[in-house]
Amino acid sequence: MMRVFPASIPLDGRTVIVVGSGPMAEPKARLFATSPARLLWFTGKTDGPVPSDIAQYAKIERRMPTRRDLRGAALLFIAGSDGVPAEALARMARRLGIPVNIVDSPASSDFQTPAIVDRDGIVVSIASGGAAPVLSVDIRAAIEQLLPARIGLLADLARELRGTVKAVLGRFGDRRAFWERALRGKARDLALAGDKSGARREMLRELNGERGEAAGIVHLVGAGPGDPDLLTLKAARLLREADVIVHDRLVSEGVLNLSRRDALRIDVGKTKGHHPVPQDTIGEILVREARKGQRVVRIKGGDPFVFGRGGEEMDVVRAAGLAVEVTPGITAAVACAASAGIPLTHRDHAQSVTFASGVVKQGGPDADYRALSAPNSTTVFYMGVGAAPEIQRKMTEAGRSPSTPVALIENGTLDTERRVFGTLGGLAALVEREGIAGPTIMIVGETAAAAASQAAPKTLEQFA
Ligand SMILES: C[S@@+](CC[C@H](N)C(=O)[O-])C[C@H]1O[C@@H](n2cnc3c(N)ncnc32)[C@H](O)[C@@H]1O
């Protein structure tokens, strides 16, 4: 049964009044921080300073309002503390036709304050009729995660163009079809990426019936290290909205399950013969699908721009004249260090941290091992397992002590995570003995010992 009706009250050019002070009144005054309403806040004479954030947009009066003050107000909130004649004020306001909310007293209020998700042009209200405010707050938190931060920008654009669209498209059905394309297509992607003028251009192009080839978009998205909880809100949203998902081996099933059931999934991490799809073919797939007008999400383990060839894919998509947007992810080094409790920097032990690759392109330049072996620093190797003997040799030859602590984190953040500890001088033997085969991060530096000292006895022995 719908016990309350969440009507929307226009606030442009209106006045909202808050009476009272302290923790009952301040949250009500804050509700209007981003609204176009004029906020009048009547605090008591003897009350302390007004919070500076509210003072920036509210007109403060250190007295009680008169009938004249109230006249014409859109809403009145009364936080009934000592010295506030709540009942008398409510009566006066009601006679003037102003709806009244007496804070924390739903039974004597004309309206209740809902939990609000505010995205400028879009406002979501969650009402429980005052019965379960905590539940409303939790629902709000869930909706906050679902709604893109810039959805209001899209609504603003739609408001700006509404008159033009009505003038150009006379038939209601045509207008609805236009808005469906405009608010779900490329203009939406551009607006959510913060490109308002690009989004406006795209909407006008759509309105003029110009449908170019570059209708689709490719999102290069970081999936983080594997645990779906470590995905960014934006990555989760892009996955939900994607028509096509191009993923590789490191993207966990838990992450992929966030996508729509009818989205096309293309696994470029391996084929039947377990060979990864060549990079050129991946580029061709991205361009082919985006040219069909699809919203393509190319999702990669960790961050797309950290040892992920994201830069090459971005260039291919751009060269094809298609839009590309990059969404970062938590890179494996950062995630594994956090998971194992290893600080990557430390004021006493590591003033810098370097991410390095254990493998280099055939015929390409090797890493500078003198720099990687500097004292008071942490070096984190990606793809280092196969190169453990060379890493051990090159770092010790470059001057890093063989007794430098080393931590290996395999399948970091997944249920199968494994941590083993040792020293640089025994790195190759450690990899061999432990049979490390999954994706692994190698952390070389004094801080790696921090986790070893908290580790289970088996790994402590290895450390000794
Ligand atoms: C091609 S790189 C991709 C790196 C990725 N773009 C990132 O930012 O994490 C693959 C390497 O990342 C590391 N890696 C990725 N995910 C990992 C995880 N969950 N645990 C440990 N290492 C991981 C391993 O060193 C693996 O060999």
How are the SSEs placed, and which strands pair?
Elements: E1 15-19, H1 26-30, E2 38-42, H2 52-55, E3 58-61, H3 67-70, E4 75-78, H4 86-95, E5 100-102, E6 115-119, E7 122-126, H5 133-146, H6 151-168, H7 172-184, H8 186-192, H9 196-207, E8 217-222, H10 233-241, E9 244-247, H11 253-256, E10 264-267, H12 279-291, E11 295-300, H13 310-319, E12 323-327, H14 332-340, E13 352-357, H15 369-372, E14 377-382, H16 388-397, E15 405-410, E16 418-423, H17 427-434, E17 440-444, H18 448-452, H19 457-463
Parallel strand pairs: 1-2, 1-4, 2-3, 4-5, 8-11, 8-12, 9-10, 9-11, 13-14
Antiparallel strand pairs: 6-7, 14-17, 15-16, 15-17
Helix pairs in contact: 6-7, 6-9, 8-9, 16-17
The structure holds S-adenosylmethionine.
S-adenosylmethionine (SAM) is lined by residues 225-226, 250, 300-303, 306-308, 331-332, 336, 382-383, 409, 411-413, 439-441.
Structural summary, described in words:
There is one protein chain. This protein is α/β, with parallel strands linked by helices and 464 residues long. The chain has 19 helices and 17 strands. The chain has a five-stranded parallel beta sheet with strand order 3-2-1-4-5, covered by helices on one side. The chain has a five-stranded parallel beta sheet with strand order 10-9-11-8-12, with helices on both faces. α6 runs parallel beside α9 (196-207), α8 runs antiparallel to α9 (196-207) and α16 packs antiparallel against α17 (427-434). The structure holds S-adenosylmethionine. S-adenosylmethionine binds at residues 225-226, 250, 300-303, 306-308, 331-332, 336, 382-383, 409, 411-413, 439-441.
